[in-house]
Write a sequence for this structure.
């Protein structure tokens, strides 16, 4: 017989076993042999997602809408299977920053804002309390139904029973006591509860096995397999229509909404965040969870539809039996007492698992992000001066747990009958979905700011309240429901479930569309209004980017171990704090914690340590109270407040400067090399000039000394020597003149008298002046095409100098008597072309450019400094300078042995057209 | 028996002056106007002393000096290098290659003759 005391005893026995498991796991954790350091335990503990809402509610929903219960499980499946990287990143970020809850995560991300942490906490508490109420309702209902065995009687409506006879009240009290025992045994620096996780994993197994047992009993005990149930269902018209997946287009939209919603819920519900992120021991466990958790969801849903159909067949027309209870009532109807008790225990498992984790997570948030910041600000309490606050922290959490469960019970008493189980769960889901933009955005977008996050969350929360929560209150009779039908203040556009005329959606989709739209809009819009400040930017880099954030200091001040140890001790207990600081000292290679230097690294460590106990925002505030921030100049304040973008801009500027420096260095090096080259050329030039000057001087001095010392030299000899002296003197003078001339040409200081010059006339004049020399050597000189009228713009004397140089060079190299020199003048393509051809030895290809270099005379040999033909070796370089000055070209064409042909061209001067006026620049 | 002097220079007027000067002192004189001819003459004429210009066609004075010092048959020959390039590095180079003296142009005829005589003494 299932008397009340049997059920109560079984319940306490079960809870006792759970507690023993948790206690044992905690012991093991303390001795360093963790029970839960195992990917399978991690994956099972994620099963806390499946509450009584799954255990009882899925069947109820399936009975109402066929496979409409599925999207709630497809969402998490998709998330784990496809978007594991998001969870992976969250875990990594949370571990690095010792994140203690979803509120802490958001607060920490946006610059460790206490305000933001508080807002998230409020939303979470308001959003999740109905969900806790749901668990209480389910447990007390299942107890009531089971206790009335063998009759199957639906329990009285919530609130109809006197308070002290309401089993839900006792359930709430027992769960509160239990949660306090589980969750607040001690204040863990890492904020992890190994015992609790172990117990949750066991509960996941119990509820799964219980549900599968019901499924097996219903399918193979009551019927001949699944096929039999579906065949029977198809025969009953009122049952058969449940098998259609959706009967309207909006229903498909609902599917999408539910998948979307449950996806976020499995990540952002406080208990999911607690288990999946905070309690995660090793991020590699996630690799197994991405298939094991979806598999768990698959198994627990395997028999939902068969059980629902069997229930509908067994209790035709409802029969006064709530579909939410089929799991329990079917075994009862078939006198399966043991199975019914097991199912009840499974439901209890689902409820306790959810309530314990959820309230622990919420109490942490309430304590760290709501109560502590407020208490520490109240000077009346003198908390800031108290030596040990670790006991107080635990006390606050215990009270928070009690208050949260109390609120849950109240909600159940007052509003519990307004909705079926599933709807209550969805209201919670929609509330935590408001965290999605700031959490996901915070992980992948560096631009989000505290103000943006506050605006987004607040806007989303308001919309959620108006479009979902208030209507649910109204439907419970708490509020006048006029505003639902007619809108706030009678404004039709403000009807909460048809906001701004958005109709045709179910209420959840409607709420989600509006709240997330406004939430994201405000988050992004407000964030974009200013660049993130330094603290936000640092956190953004830590969350989004990774390692590079190390470069941005979290603190620009310091505090010594003397201040930080007592501070940490107040929250963690002195012993634990001492241990932590000693460990830190050892990591830094110091002998004891008293050697720790008062630097920013120590401050950073203390902050992270505290964050594990009281959340990042409070930790920052507490550390700030003992850190001596270095005094800031106004410039520094500007710099710090002006932030990351400036840091980035500064970095860019530095990089730019560095690039410019590199370039300048390269240019300098090049210039230096060029200067050295010029210096070497100058040395060579001077050395060459010296050599050229000394050669005639040598002859002059030698002959002069000989004549001077020996008066007896005969007259013929004397006259020959004097002739040599004279000719060497002439050579010397010419050399000096040409060197000076070239120097002037090269430095651009030469004076030019530019005018239109008749080329033919200049050639004739040059030829005339050299005619005697040609006659002497019996060389013929022929002028071709030297009619007048070919004008160029040039300096007449300089042009004459070029012609004389070319003609005398030709004369120099042609043989006596048989020598022939020919000058051709022609005009082509806007140019005047003059060539001087000889029948001398010619110039080898290798020398044809060398002869235009200074002091390099042509010889018809590979070595250019040979044979010392008469001349200075400067004539051709000077001629080329002159021709190029007038934008012309001078070159030589020659085949060795077949004479040489020197050619120059000059731009033709067309009449009085001055278009080709030369500039002062050298080409 | 009078000493033999080989004059090596590519500047005709300088050759004329050196030839006159040295013949007047009673030495036998031969002339070469480039480096290759100088080596040939050194073998054929077997001079006791060579006046060697540095800047010459075909083979520079330095190269000629090096070749002579590498030839055991020419071990005894004295070499005076003449050059219009008076940089110290070049003087050092000439002496390192085995020249006995190094005289820069323009030179004092008296000093040149004294140098020749002292080397041949």
């Amino acid at each position: 017989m299932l008397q009340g005391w049997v059920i109560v005893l079984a319940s306490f026995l079960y809870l006792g076993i759970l507690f023993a498991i948790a206690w044992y796991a905690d012991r093991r954790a303390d001795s360093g042999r963790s029970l839960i350091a195992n990917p399978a335990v991690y994956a099972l503990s994620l099963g806390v997602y499946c509450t009584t809402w799954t255990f009882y509610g899925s069947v109820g929903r399936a009975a109402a809408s066929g496979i409409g219960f599925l999207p709630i499980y497809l969402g998490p499946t998709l998330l784990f299977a496809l978007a594991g990287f998001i969870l992976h990143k969250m875990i990594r970020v949370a571990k690095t920053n010792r994140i203690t809850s979803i509120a802490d995560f958001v607060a920490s991300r946006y610059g460790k804002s206490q305000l933001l942490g508080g807002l998230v906490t409020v939303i979470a508490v308001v959003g999740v309390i109905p969900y806790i109420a749901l668990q209480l309702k389910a447990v007390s209902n299942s107890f009531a139904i089971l206790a009335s065995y063998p009759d199957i009687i639906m329990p009285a409506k919530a609130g109809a029973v006197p308070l002290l006879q309401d089993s839900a009240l006792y359930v709430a009290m027992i769960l509160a006591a239990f949660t306090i025992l589980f969750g607040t045994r001690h204040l863990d620096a890492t904020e992890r509860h190994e015992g609790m996780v172990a117990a949750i994993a066991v509960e996941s197994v119990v509820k799964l096995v219980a549900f599968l047992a019901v499924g097996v009993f219903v399918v193979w005990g009551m019927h001949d397999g699944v096929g039999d149930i579906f065949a029977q269902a198809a025969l009953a018209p009122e049952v058969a229509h449940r098998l259609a997946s959706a009967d309207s287009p909006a229903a498909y939209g609902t599917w999408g909404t539910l998948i979307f919603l449950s996806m976020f819920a499995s990540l952002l519900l406080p208990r999911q965040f607690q288990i999946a992120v905070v309690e995660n021991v090793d991020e590699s466990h996630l690799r197994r969870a991405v298939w094991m958790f979806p598999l768990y969801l698959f198994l627990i849903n395997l028999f939902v539809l068969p059980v629902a159909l069997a229930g509908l067949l067994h209790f035709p027309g409802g029969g006064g039996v709530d579909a939410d209870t089929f799991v329990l009532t079917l075994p009862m109807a078939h006198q399966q007492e043991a199975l019914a008790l097991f199912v009840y225990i499974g439901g209890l498992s689902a409820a306790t698992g959810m309530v314990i984790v959820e309230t622990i997570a919420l109490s942490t948030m309430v304590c760290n992000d709501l109560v502590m910041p407020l208490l520490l600000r109240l000077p009346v309490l003198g908390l800031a001066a108290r030596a040990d606050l670790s006991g107080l922290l635990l006390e606050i959490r215990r009270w928070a747990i009690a208050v949260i469960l109390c609120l849950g019970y109240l909600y159940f008493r007052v509003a519990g009958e307004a909705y079926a189980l599933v709807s209550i769960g969805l209201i919670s889901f929609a509330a935590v979905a408001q965290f999605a933009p700031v959490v996901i955005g915070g992980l992948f977008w560096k631009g989000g700011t505290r103000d943006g996050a506050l605006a987004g969350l607040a806007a989303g929360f308001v919309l959620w309240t108006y479009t979902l929560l208030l209507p649910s209150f109204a439907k419970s009779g708490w509020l006048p429901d006029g505003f639902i039908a007619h809108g706030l203040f009678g404004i039709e556009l403000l009807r909460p479930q048809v906001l701004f005329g958005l109709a045709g959606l179910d209420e959840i989709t409607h709420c989600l569309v509006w709240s997330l739209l406004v939430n994201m809009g405000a988050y992004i819009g407000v964030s974009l209004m200013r660049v993130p400040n330094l603290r936000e930017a640092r956190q953004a880099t830590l969350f989004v980017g990774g390692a590079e954030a190390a470069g941005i200091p979290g603190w620009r001040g310091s505090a010594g171990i003397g201040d930080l140890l007592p501070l940490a001790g107040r929250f963690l207990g002195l012993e634990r704090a001492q241990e932590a600081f000693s460990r830190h000292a050892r990591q830094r290679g110091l002998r004891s914690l008293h050697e720790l230097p008062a630097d920013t690294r120590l401050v950073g460590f203390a902050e992270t340590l505290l964050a594990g106990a009281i959340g990042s925002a409070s930790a920052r505030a507490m550390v700030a109270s003992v850190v001596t921030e270095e005094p800031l100049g106004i410039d520094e304040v500007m710099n710090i407040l002006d932030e990351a973008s400036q840091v980035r801009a500064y970095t860019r500027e530095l990089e730019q400067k560095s690039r410019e420096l590199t370039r300048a260095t390269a240019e300098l090096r090049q210039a230096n090399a060029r200067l050295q080259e010029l210096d070497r050329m100058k040395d060579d030039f001077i050395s060459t000039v010296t050599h050229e000057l000394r050669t005639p001087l040598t002859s002059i001095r030698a002959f002069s000394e000989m004549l001077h010392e020996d008066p007896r030299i005969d007259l013929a000899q004397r006259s020959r020597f004097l002739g040599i002296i004279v000719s060497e003197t002439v050579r010397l003078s010419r050399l000096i003149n040409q060197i000076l001339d070239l120097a002037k040409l090269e430095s651009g200081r030469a004076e030019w008298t530019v005018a239109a010059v008749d080329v033919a006339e200049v050639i004739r004049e040059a030829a005339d002046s050299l005619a005697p020399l040609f006659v002497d050597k019996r060389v013929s000189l022929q002028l071709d095409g030297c009619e007048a009228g070919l004008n160029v713009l040039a300096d007449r004397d300089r042009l004459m100098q070029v012609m004389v140089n070319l003609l005398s060079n030709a004369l120099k190299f042609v043989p006596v008597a048989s020598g022939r020199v020919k000058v051709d003048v022609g005009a082509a393509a806007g140019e005047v072309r003059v060539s001087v051809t000889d029948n001398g030895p010619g110039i080898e290809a290798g020398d044809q450019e060398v002869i235009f270099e200074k002091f390099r005379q042509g010889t018809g040999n590979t070595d250019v400094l040979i044979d010392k033909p008469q001349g200075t070796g400067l004539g051709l370089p000077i001629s080329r300078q002159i021709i190029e000055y007038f934008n012309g070209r001078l070159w030589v064409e020659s085949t060795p042995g077949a004479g040489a042909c020197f050619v120059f061209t000059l731009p033709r001067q067309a009449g009085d057209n001055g278009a080709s006026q030369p500039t002062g620049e050298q080409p | 028996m009078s000493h033999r002097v080989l004059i090596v220079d590519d500047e005709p007027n300088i050759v004329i002056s050196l030839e006159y000067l040295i013949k007047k002192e009673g030495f036998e004189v031969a002339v070469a106007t480039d480096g290759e001819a100088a080596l040939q003459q050194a073998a054929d004429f077997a001079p006791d002393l060579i006046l060697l210009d540095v800047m010459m066609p075909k083979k520079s004075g330095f190269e000629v000096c090096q070749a002579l010092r590498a030839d055991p048959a020419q071990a005894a020959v004295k070499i005076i290098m003449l050059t219009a390039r008076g940089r110290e590095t070049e003087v050092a180079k000439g002496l390192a290659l085995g020249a006995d003296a190094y005289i820069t142009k323009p030179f004092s005829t008296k000093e040149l003759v004294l140098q020749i005589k002292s080397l041949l003494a």
